[in-house]
Amino acid sequence: xxxxxxxxxxxxxxxxxxxxxxxxxxxxxxxxxxxxxxxxxxxxxxxxxxxxxxxxxxxxxxxxxxxxxxxxxxxxxxxxxxxxxxxxxxxxxxxxxxxxxxxxxxxxxxxxxxxxxxxxxxxxxxxxxxxxxxxxxxxxxxxxxxxxxxxxxxxxxxxxxxxxxxxxxxxx
Length: 172
Hints:
The chain is mainly β. Helix content is 10%, strand content 59%.
């Protein structure tokens, strides 16, 4: 009798260990990693090209805290300006088109100062606060997105505009 019980117990345990584990499916509200690169322009009196890169984690499919690095005229060598900022971003829950917005706060390492004639530029080098706000929209294409945004950096009295290309790298 004991031998029968032992064989039955070993049989049940081995069957349970050989059973395939249940697959976990990502839920739409699972955290997702977002990577984005942007090209655009900033303007106080004239357009100056900008590039930026952002990394963030999308929580609850609408809230994305991020870090962005931005360069104004990056190919201008010593005449370029840089900023790094933390952002709080939000978006609608659309599956094809999403409306976006964000607020960012950080430090700018330089500010391009143009003369009234616009012929030469000088730089203010001390680190200074960098505050931005923007609104936009993005089109979701599988794990990729293509977006456009407009905004402002009020402390520098500049308008910002960009075309954004990104990927939702990991997660739902």
